Amino acid sequence: SLPSTTIVYSLSSTVYRQKTMNKPKSIHFVGIKGVGMTPLAIIAKEAGIAVTGSDVAEAFLTDTPLNDAGIVPLESFSPEHVGKVDLVITTNAHQGFDNPEVIKAKDQHIPVLTKGEAVGAFMEGTILGTHYTGISVAGTHGKTTTAAMLATILTAARKDPGYLIGTSEIPSLKGMPGHFGRGQHFVAEADEYVTEPNYDRSPQFMYQHPTIAIITNIDHDHPDIYPTIEDVQQAFLRFANQIVNGVVIICGDAKTAKDFLKQYKGNVLTYGFSPLNDYVISSYRVENGKIHFRVQGKEIDLGAFMLSVPGEHNALNSVAACLAARETGITLEACKQA
Fold first, then answer.
1. What is the pTM of this model?
2. Of 77, 88, 185, 235, whose CB is crowded by the most CB atoms within 10 A?
3. Strands 162-164 and 178-179
4. In this predicted model, which residue has the larger pLDDT, 213 or 3?
């Protein structure tokens, strides 16, 4: 219900509101090497924002994309690392809000966002100054691959999407897990884990308000947060209910998905191997290291697909990415080629 120019960010038990936050000139990232934090930092730098960040000294898989982006993390965590910046974004690891750099930011009255809040703000344009149509990729697993496939399709179609993918190097995207796109769409992984374990236990994906959402699967994960599978299902249902005038694209094979669909009343497209889905995968086979399959829709035959990555799970991931891309107006042949 807040206007798009409003950022709400929480720290400990205090909630601050900054009603007229302009695009920040500088952001400091606490835990910048995290797979969810690195793409945020890369996007911010591409958007013309001065970026600093800190993390542990050990080598990590995101070192290469950070180096390629010209970002050199400060070693360890120290209050001295927080300069006169406009905004601090923090990981939910490394003590979260109790990290000494976050405490210093609070003392200096510098706005602080968690990673989950920042992803939502980047998508909505309250930080980057660019409003996107959001595409969120949720699911207990498969988020990274599916988001990378979708961003690859949009990029190959010259849509120049923004994207935030929780990994290291992605060859089909010039090696980068994050990009400040000038196009209409922003693709982001949507994580069901808590925003901040000690102070904000709402799921991170609740800060995203996409027009298109993919749900790859709903399995029982994070038992420290979700004691039962029903708790996980309810979290995904709350996330999906935030979508207005959009569509949820969900793999309908599993019982958990069927239970979700009984409760969700919004616009849905289902895909999978079960003939009960809207889009059904069939004739799956492996040949010369590649997978081949067909997809039949209720009203359209999507024809034959071929992928160089193995596994039935990647057939599912690719179909989800293609269905989302087609919702943006990209042709089926362009999806397949990408």
1. 0.92
2. 88
3. antiparallel
4. 213
Task: Please give the pLDDT value at position 6.
Answer: 34
- HSE, side-chain direction, 13 A CA sphere, residue 299: 1
Task: Determine the pLDDT at residue 11.
Answer: 36
Q: What is the mean pLDDT of residues 69-79?
A: 97
Q: How confident is the model at residue 7 (pLDDT cuts 50, 70, 90)?
A: very low
- Are the CB atoms for 166 and 189 separated by under 8 Å? yes
37 token code pair? 């934090």
Tokens of 229: 């599978």
- The radius of gyration of the chain from alpha carbons, rounded to an integer in Å, stands at 20
Residue ranges of E strands in 227-321 = 247-251, 268-272, 279-287, 290-297, 301-307
Contacts of 53 (CB under 8 A, 6+ apart): 28, 29, 30, 31, 32, 33, 37, 41, 71, 73, 74
pLDDT of res. 102: 97
Q: How far is CA 107 from CA 19, 32, 82, 88, 100, in A?
A: 20, 21, 11, 12, 10
Report the percentage of the chain scoring pLDDT > 70. 94
Residue 152, token pair as written in the block? 């690859």
Say if CB 75 and CB 53 are below 8 A apart.
no
Nearest to 177 by CA among 33, 325, 29, 35: 35
Question: Do β-strands 74-75 and 50-55 pair in parallel, antiparallel, or remain unpaired?
Answer: parallel
